[in-house]
Design goal:
Blueprint lengths: L4 E2 L2 E2 L1 H14 L3 E2 L13 H14 L4 E5 L5 H10 L5 E5 L8 H13 L5 E5 L1 H4 L5 H10 L3 E6 L4 H10 L5 E4 L5 H6 L4 E2 L3 H4 L1 H15 L3 H20 L7 H9 L16 H15 L1
Length: 285
């Protein structure tokens, strides 16, 4: 979820309204305080307030909170700061460029310090490090409360290897909206989505249709394919500038929040604004 700002401050009223919008759309769970939420720019008090607001308005939906940093003390401090989360999304440590054995030991150590479920987050385009399938599978088999992975590597063969050899109860979630259909056709469980901020109803319909397709309903796959085609241009345009820059432009155009970001992020260019306006007109016409 995006974190709205108004005059530089976290806009909790607008955030609450967007949580309610997600719930009304039928979202299965919510993910505040992730990369899309500009979390590295938030203070501890702001992080707590965002989680409390999400909890107040989620109507029982599970809340997965981003807590990852590039150090064990930093990540554990976030876990202790946000004990009301249902699960924690922990990114592969960024900047350090650890070897695979370091990634393994890092996640094993984090998981040993909490009883809550941990979801790994692999996004090498941001972190500079990729968690390989073998490492993911070792953690999945060795650490009971590591329960899934958000895979945003774009390495389809790697993700297919995880799907093939994962424990039965280990969730594989796409981290890229535009990979979701192909991964769900291979057995993935869903997506942690950027596009769902902008088009929550359509994303819920898309993923739920794919889940019905996995259960053997061919007509549902046709519905999922049609929705994927309808959403594909939104998926693309949301990343023509770094996320969440285009997404916040879209939300502002829809009247859902101010187009305000915290430095070092800045609002979208005029060119992106124009492209996004056309995409939204085509999507919601």
């Amino acid at each position: 979820m995006f974190t709205p700002f108004e005059e530089g401050r976290v806009d909790l009223a607008t955030f609450a309204a967007n949580v309610e919008r997600q719930v009304k759309a039928g979202m299965d769970f919510l993910v505040p305080l992730g990369t899309t939420g500009e979390t590295p720019t938030l203070s501890d008090d702001e992080k707590r307030a965002v989680l409390e607001t999400a909890r107040e308005h989620a109507e029982g939906r599970k809340i997965v909170v981003g807590v990852g940093t590039n150090s064990v003390p930093g990540t554990l401090a976030n876990i202790r700061l946000l004990p009301d989360a249902d699960a924690f999304l922990v990114v592969v440590p960024y900047y350090n460029k650890p070897p695979q054995r370091g990634i393994y030991e890092y996640f094993k150590t984090i998981a040993s310090e909490t009883d809550k479920p941990i979801i790994l987050y692999n996004v090498p385009g941001r972190t500079g490090s990729n968690i390989e399938a073998e490492t993911t599978l070792q953690l999945a088999h060795d650490v009971p409360n590591i329960v899934g992975i958000k895979e945003a590597s774009g390495k389809i063969d790697q993700i297919l290897a995880i799907l093939r050899d994962r424990p039965e109860d280990f969730a594989v979630l796409s981290g890229n909206d535009d990979d979701t259909l192909k991964l769900m056709k291979a057995g993935a469980d869903g997506v942690i989505s950027v596009a769902s901020n902008v088009a929550p109803v359509e994303m819920v319909q898309f993923v739920h249709a794919a889940l019905k397709g996995q259960a053997g309903t061919q007509e549902a796959w046709q519905t999922a394919e049609a929705l994927n085609a309808r959403l594909s241009e939104l998926f693309r345009v949301l990343f023509i500038e770094p996320n969440p820059i285009p997404g916040k432009a879209a939300m502002a155009q829809l009247g859902l929040m101010e187009n305000s970001l915290r430095l070092p992020l800045v609002p979208a260019t005029d060119a992106t604004e124009a492209i996004m306006e056309k995409v939204l007109i085509d999507l919601f016409k």
